[in-house]
Structure formats: structure tokens, C-alpha cells
Amino acid sequence: MAGAIASRMSFSSLKRKQPKTFTVRIVTMDAEMEFNCEVLDHDVSKEEPVTFHFLAKFYPENAEEELVQEITQHLFFLQVKKQILDEKIYCPPEASVLLASYAVQAKYGDYDPSVHKRGFLAQEELLPKRVINLYQMTPEMWEERITAWYAEHRGRARDEAEMEYLKIAQDLEMYGVNYFAIRNKKGTELLLGVDALGLHIYDPENRLTPKISFPWNEIRNISYSDKEFTIKPLDKKIDVFKFNSSKLRVNKLILQLCIGNHDLFMRRRKADSLEVQQMKAQAREEKARKQMERQRLAREKQMREEAERTRDELERRLLQMKEEATMANEALMRSEETADLLAEKAQITEEEAKLLAQKAAEAEQEMQRIKATAIRTEEEKRLMEQKVLEAEVLALKMAEESERRAKEADQLKQDLQEAREAERRAKQKLLEITTKPTYPPMNPIPAPLPPDIPSFNLIGDSLSFDFKDTDMKRLSMEIEKEKVEYMEKSKHLQEQLNELKTEIEALKLKERETALDILHNENSDRGGTSSKHNTIKKLTLQSAKSRVAFFEEL
């Protein structure tokens, strides 16, 4: 970490002042070095500004075990990601989409549909240009497939997403391999590949699958004289392995890479030094602390979501009660209006009934007066009888109308009573709604941490932990459990990759396939790309003598 920071500081000063020398300070797990570099000693461009890239020279076999510090992991992740995007490391299209989803998780965090809307990846460089040009797919289609996998990574922190990215990348065929053009004794042009596992011989047209491999534990000595490079196997009965390179400078670089990778290869297979053990212990404690912090944040987030749901439910119920109160008020107003109309109508009907009764009495009086009057002549008598008959009919009709009006008045009085009863019930319901007990505001009290979780205190800039043996054992069991889950997940992941490959195969433009694409497809059809380590392991099953003989015959 310090080396990367010091290098970047020197680089920025170089761009401003343009000095002829710069100082690089490198800190490793075993030593601390500081040296001066002459800018003119390197083949750099004379144009300004001059750009330097400080990269990892030796790649880890297992990134999860060897990258202890989080900043080291992050910087190495950025380096591998850039090499994949620049196509220095070949990556199949389906694996490119999966790696892009982990890169998005590392940058943006958990997927949120309300925040990460369509087009939010439009300005991101996530896929190699070779993959984009190989298929008839729009940027929106690529974003849709990346987002579908991105949504499945919910809950992963940045360092976890970056580590998942590196776990997939470290199994790519060209990961960590430095290629050099060489010739054997017959003058055949070949490629020498140097990586963390050993030396590999490739056909110049096929950088994915080596023809033969020599693991570091089978090599005893490496040296060169002028342009001839000599490798002595561990078995002294086997002839030395020789090849020629194009330049003396290349031999120096090959030797440096061989010595460094061989040393790291043997060191990985020995017990860690005390300093490395302390660093790993600190890393485990830091991981456990972060895990507890994430659990605490997850609990707080869950409690906050529950409080928000409770608040929303109370607001919904309050709104429902307001609507019920409004409806009750409206029903009460309608009942009052209906009661007023019925009362008015009943009053009018009662007055009409009184008027009809008065007219009936007047008719009865008139009939009695007519009967009392003596009519002397028959004609007057007949007329009088006719008038009497008419008066009787009229009186009968008026009596019937009076009776009907009385019944109607009684009915209106009954309707008025019912309306007043409905009005009384509406007032009572409104009173019940307005007098319901209100809900107290939700003040969620954070739940106390479980007693079995180790405690830690933050005081100023210092951090103190209290881990028990049981906690470390539990952490070890969790790590073992994660390994088992990872193996099961790998099988599911391969199925997803095959499914995506089948889905986008119909959109592929065959004429745009590169030589590496064709080689990768042939290896896939033969089942030869299941694992980089498995491929090299199969090649090393042959005896070292037969591999040397095969190299000489190429």
C-alpha cells in the first residue's frame, strides 16, 4: 500500500516539475526498499506529460488467501479489471457479463430500482470492445443482462464483490501469464509463458492452452548466457532445457520473473512467517469487526424498515378513519335534510287534511240545510233530490279523500320518526369515530446487541477488540462453511454462464470472431476450459523427460 501511494505521489510531482529522477519506496511483507530510478534509463516517450503505471509484477495463485490488506486487494482488482477491458487477458463473453455485474456491485452497492434506473450504466466501461462488437446487441440489452446479475449480488460489500471478481478472473487462461517470443534448437518460433505456477510453452497462434508445462517444484536452476536461456530440471538424469530469446534485456526480465515466481511458489507451500501470521490475524480480526458492523447495520436497517412499515400502516389507517368520518358526516347531513323535507311534507299534508275536513263539514251543513228547506213543487223537489244526491256523492268523495290524506299524514309521520332515528344513529357513529384512542408515535428503540457478539469500543482514533476463543472458532467454522457454499455456488454459476451463452449465441456475428474466440470455443467443445489449474495439472502428469523431448521436437 505504501509503495503504491509513494509511487503515485512521485508520479504527480513528475508531471508538474519534470525531474530527471524519481524515488520509489516499496514496502512488502518481508522487506522495505527505497531506490532512485533514472527516467532516461527507461524507454519512455519524450512527449509531455509522461504517464507511468505502477502495477503488480507477481500475481497470486489464490487471491483470497494471499491478498491480506483491503487496499492491496482493491488496487489489484483495478489492475486485473483494466487488463480484461484492454483485452490483455482473454475473457469469454458470458464471463465478461458476470465480472461486469460484480464491478457494478463494488462501485454502486446494492441494487435499488428507484435509484439505478434504466441507462445508469450508459457511461460505464464494463465490457471489452471485442465482446461488444461480437454480438448484435444494443447497449440497453447489455445493461439489462448485467443488471439482472447485479440485482442478485445484494448484501455484498465492496471488498466482497471485488474478491468475487478476482476469484473468477484468476481462473482465466491468460491471467498472470507473461509471454515472451523464443526459439528452440530447431529454430521453431514458440511462446514462453511465465506465471505463478511455472513455465509454459505455447504455440504463437494459441495463447490459451499450453503445449507443455514445467511447474516450479520441478526446476532446480535457471540461468542465461547472452541470448541462450538454460533451465535445469530437479531430476539430474533429465537433460537441460534450453531456448533462445531475441534480446539480452528480455533474458534479464525472464530471469527476474522466474526467480520471483519460483520464490513465491515455494514460500506459499511453507508455514507463514510470524509477521505474515500477525498480518493475517489482524486481517481476520478486521474482517470479523466489519462483519459485525455489517450485521449491526443490517439489523438497524431492518428495524428502520419495520418502523417505516408501521408508520405507513398507521398513516393508512388514519386516512381510512378520516374517510369514514367524512362519509359519516355526509350521511348525517343527508339524514338531516331528509328529515326536514319529510317534516315539511307532513305539515303540508296535515293542513290539506284539515282543509278537506272543513269542506266536508260545510257540505254536510249544506245538505242538512237543503233537506230542511221545503220545496213545494215537484220540479223543485226533483231538482232538490238531484242536488241532495250530488251533495251526498261529493260528501262521500270528500270523506274518502280526507281519510286518504289522514293515512298519508300518518305515513309521513312514521317516515319522519325513522329519519330522526337514522339521524340519531349517524350522530352516535360519528361520536364513536371521533372519540377513538389515537396511536402513539412510533419511536423504535434499537434492539440491544445479542450478548454472544464480541464487543468493541471506539475511542478517538483507537480501536480495541475483545475476541474470545469461542468467537475465533465460530469465525473459522463460518469460513469453512463459506468455502463449502462457494463450491456449491460455483456449480450454479457455471449453469448461469452456460444459460447466458446460449441466450446470446443467436446474436453472435461469426465473421467478427477473433482467433482467441475460436480457440476458446474449440476448447469449450472439447471440455478443455473447465479450469486453468486442471489444464496445467494434466500437462504435468507426463514425465519431465518426455516434456523436454517434446519441446525439442517442436
Key words describing this protein structure:
554 residues; alpha+beta; Acyl-CoA Binding Protein; PH-domain like; two-stranded antiparallel ribbon; 14 helices; 11 strands; rod-shaped; disordered N terminus; cell membrane
What does this structure look like?
Its main location: membrane. Keywords: Cell membrane, Coiled coil, Cytoplasm, Cytoskeleton, Membrane. This is Neurofibromin 2. Residues 1-269 form the FERM domain. The strands form three sheets. A seven-stranded antiparallel sheet has the order 6-5-4-3-9-8-7, with helices on one face. A two-stranded antiparallel ribbon has the order 1-2. Residues 1-35 and 438-468 have low confidence and may be disordered. It has 554 residues and is α+β, with helices and mostly antiparallel strands. The protein has helices at residues 2-17, 63-66, 70-85, 93-108, 129-134, 139-150, 158-169, 248-268, 274-372, 378-434, 469-505, 515-526, 532-539, 544-553, and strands spanning 21-27, 32-38, 178-183, 189-194, 198-202, 212-215, 219-225, 228-233, 241-245, 456-459, 462-465. Helix 9 (274-372) runs antiparallel to helix 10 (378-434). 16% of the residues are buried. It folds into three domains: 70-170, Acyl-CoA Binding Protein (Up-down Bundle); 178-275 and 515-553, Roll (PH-domain like); 276-435.
